Amino acid sequence: xxxxxxxxxxxxxxxxxxxxxxxxAADEVYQISRWGEGYFAINNSGDLCVLPKKDPKGxxxxxxxxxxxxKSKGLPFPSxxxxxxxxxxxxANINKTFxxxxxxxxxxxxxxxxxPIKVNQMxxxxxxxxxxxxxxxxxxxxxxxxxxxxxxxxxxxxNSLTILNGYKDEEFLRLALLGIQLGxxxxxxxxxYSELLQLLELSEKVGVEPMIGIRAKLATxxxxxxxxxxxxxxxFGLTIPEVLQATRLLKSHGKEHCLKLFHYHIGSQIPDIRxxxxxxxxxxxxxxxxxxxxxxxxxxDVGGGVGVNYDGTxxxxxxxxxxxxxxxxxxxxxxxxxDVPHPxxxxxxxxxxTAHHSCVVTNVFxxxxxxxxxxxTEKVLNExxxxxxxxxxxxxxTDKNYQDVYADALKIKEDxxxxxxLGVLSLEERAKVETIFWKISRMVVEFSKIDEYAxxxxxxxxxxxxxxxLCNFSVFQSAPDTWGIGQILPxxxxxxxxxRPEVLxxxxxxxxxxxxxxxxxLSPDGPSQTVPxxxxxxxxxxxxxxxxxxxxxxxxxxxxxxxxRLNEVHVFCDDDDPTDFYIxxxxxxxxxxxxxxxxxxxxxxxxxxxxxxxxxxxxRGKIRPREGVTLTDFYENCLQxxxxxxx
Length: 647
Ligand SMILES: *Cc1c(COP(=O)(O)O)cnc(C)c1O
Fold this sequence. Notes:
By secondary structure, the chain is α/β, with parallel strands linked by helices. Among the domains are: about 180 residues, Alanine racemase (TIM Barrel), CATH 3.20.20.10; about 80 residues, Methane Monooxygenase Hydroxylase, Chain G, domain 1; about 45 residues, no CATH class. The protein contains 22 helices and 21 strands. The strands form three sheets. Strands 4, 13, 14, 15, 16, 17, 18, 19, 20 and 21 form a ten-stranded mixed beta sheet that branches. Strand 5, helix 5 and strand 6 form a beta-alpha-beta unit. Helix 15 packs across helix 16. The protein is globular. The structure holds pyridoxal-5'-phosphate (PLP). The site of pyridoxal-5'-phosphate has 16 residues, from helix 12.
């Protein structure tokens, strides 16, 4: 079910409040400095740039130059652009932050983080993370057999961890033991009690000692969309009695030395730092008590959940540094009080590492204006009184009475619909009433802009009347969270940011689904139902970016309406190149025939059938032979083409 933002304000971004439009104004309106974490900035010509080193004086990749290069290679939009330097930088960031806080706190353990690959399993993404993390022995986390197989093949570093969460069968556990046989640090995290029995039995049979972790259900709960990930009724983890029982079972089997890791994960995108403090306090206390019970735990795994600031506001009330300080200092304090040695710290942050590195670039190909019509509405002889009435009322509208006029117009429109249904009004007359009604509505919207006391109904009308910008992409493929959980993603023009955006618009995609739209955007005052965009005329080149799509969106996107995966462009920074970047790789998106083949169609047979049909028409003399050949080729070319609109 689609969730809508109930709090989305009916107020509007007051673009006119900026007397002079500058790139600073654009930065504020689109909150670029806030969600961008220093990776994005606007240049003097109004183009959005990527600062891969977060250094305003360092290299600067102009996204419009990237777009030009994509065009020159003949690659159609929409396209995913991955900035691998951002990914690398985020990996270094989390590792360096933990290292420096650990040093400063004189904490005796080390940081041994892992990247949970479910957040973005693309090989190139995982490869880049593993490579950037190698100096820090940064490992991987997997939650299913295919992910585990990927992790085993990707993380060959014997000094980093491979952590296995999720429900497991015998094959899964056997794969884990294979990792141990290869000398890797593969830790099986027990999510439910019976897995422990199964693991002990299997390891006995195979003759390989496992490395075991246990996930506990903490009482501490997060708020927000993932609150259900902890507490007694959560899906994963052992209750406190089960945790104790598991420790004792291992002891009775003489395997207490196999229990290496204590884990909890209280959910994603944790909004409040207080939840983090409470979970660490609770987790650290359980950890210490278990060590005192005789468990020889070496790792304290705080899971993921570090939030990122998608909407630029204070919906996440802490920084990475705040988070890391809480983890390290609270754990240290608790261990010192309980007289337990400091463990190594593991964290499983995924969203934090990947969200910023990729974006989706789409082109606007048209706009829809509600009720726009050129129908003549002048008075004619013997016209229906409803038409005369609405015209008359419309003629009286002023900034003082516009709400009253609107109410009357609304009533006349309703009466018109009834009269039409009763057969006493012609189609022409109904069309005239509606044309005048929409003209009045547009005037109402204009008057409401200068009226700070406009009613909620009128403000709602403004939202409803907002122009829809038609963008060449599918929400379901590229931004499923905006549809599924009402997540706000930064959406803004990639160029013209030095020009005042004149239109408050919503964004519609090309799927045949009325949910295929975005109508909740960030603004300096919180969620808004419209986004300021530049006036668009047919034929204009206008590019809009959906940012922070690097976490979860790639894999959760689906093929609604058979719109397939996007072309992907992998961009690297090169300080010595005049443009500061190069395109290292292009991964072509799905062709129509690929999408159809996943749905059990056979594109070859389809093409044959079409050819036979065309040949028949040629034989019957309905199509010229030459045209028949062209049409056959045309159909085949379409099968091999991109699923999205050609400009
Ligand atoms: C999904 C998941 C993560 C990653 O969470 P983020 O919010 O992306 O940091 C970490 N650990 C476990 C067990 C998970 O299920």
